[in-house]
Amino acid sequence: MKVDIDLDKSLFLPHMTADDSTDVIEQLSTQLYEIGYVKESYIAAIKKREMEYPTGLPSKSPAVAIPHADFNLVNKTTVAVGTLEKPVEFHDMENIKKTIPVQIVIMLAIGEPHGQVEMLQRVVGIIQDEKLRNDILNANTSEELLNLIEPSLLGILN
Amino acid sequence: MPARILVACGNGIATSTVVASKIRSFMEDKGLPVDTTQTKLMEVPGKVEGFDLLVTTGEFDGKTHGVPYVKGMPILTGIGADNTFNEIYKIIKEKEG
């Protein structure tokens, strides 16, 4: 199946520095807004949504969080990916009293409510691949990061 | 009539879509096709009645009105997914008799 998604190199940010989960979410969502993928209100919405329904996913290190917000606020479907040298604590999606030290943030900007199953499943594929997670964490440039993630998202390789 | 599974996540769109689609294809492979409905976690208590099973990603501690409940996170992370799929299969299989 063809996945209709534009990936933008400037949305792949290796070795970010952030104080906490809100900070990294703000940085990534601001980048999405500045390039025009989301509306300005997406920034506040995704921060609020993370507080209500956290998106930290429990796994071996490096752990992943997948913040996302209402599709109404998205102009065009894409993902923004940031890696963190120093982990920040995200709350666990399934047990919000717990926190998870996250080093890979995959922010989903999904423009259609039901049309992106395939893309989401591919994101889940990244989450489940421990070697890929480590490679992602070790990427030093936007290009390297994009090159690691693009095949998984667009299905060029398997 | 196929068994009906309610799948819920924060907004009823993102992670529940993945989990619902994985459950449908797993159950189809098992020869027990199911219908899935997605909803927001907040809306579960008002909607869940009459479903054969509730699966959620995200914390849920509301009322299920006696509907069996399985945590769907392992399907998303892959960690322990086999157990979760088997649990779902067992509940639906029992339901179907």
From TrEMBL, chain A:
<protein>
    <submittedName>
        <fullName>Protein-N(Pi)-phosphohistidine--sugar phosphotransferase</fullName>
        <ecNumber>2.7.1.191</ecNumber>
    </submittedName>
</protein>
<keyword id="KW-0808">Transferase</keyword>
<dbReference type="InterPro" id="IPR016152">
    <property type="entry name" value="PTrfase/Anion_transptr"/>
</dbReference>
<feature type="domain" description="PTS EIIA type-2">
    <location>
        <begin position="5"/>
        <end position="152"/>
    </location>
</feature>
<dbReference type="InterPro" id="IPR002178">
    <property type="entry name" value="PTS_EIIA_type-2_dom"/>
</dbReference>
<dbReference type="InterPro" id="IPR051541">
    <property type="entry name" value="PTS_SugarTrans_NitroReg"/>
</dbReference>
<dbReference type="Pfam" id="PF00359">
    <property type="entry name" value="PTS_EIIA_2"/>
</dbReference>
<dbReference type="GO" id="GO:0016740">
    <property type="term" value="F:transferase activity"/>
</dbReference>
UniProtKB/TrEMBL annotation, chain B:
<keyword id="KW-0808">Transferase</keyword>
<protein>
    <submittedName>
        <fullName>Protein-N(Pi)-phosphohistidine--sugar phosphotransferase</fullName>
        <ecNumber>2.7.1.191</ecNumber>
    </submittedName>
</protein>
<dbReference type="GO" id="GO:0008982">
    <property type="term" value="F:protein-N(PI)-phosphohistidine-sugar phosphotransferase activity"/>
</dbReference>
<dbReference type="InterPro" id="IPR036095">
    <property type="entry name" value="PTS_EIIB-like_sf"/>
</dbReference>
<dbReference type="Pfam" id="PF02302">
    <property type="entry name" value="PTS_IIB"/>
</dbReference>
<dbReference type="InterPro" id="IPR003501">
    <property type="entry name" value="PTS_EIIB_2/3"/>
</dbReference>
<dbReference type="GO" id="GO:0009401">
    <property type="term" value="P:phosphoenolpyruvate-dependent sugar phosphotransferase system"/>
</dbReference>
<feature type="domain" description="Phosphotransferase system EIIB component type 2/3">
    <location>
        <begin position="4"/>
        <end position="83"/>
    </location>
</feature>
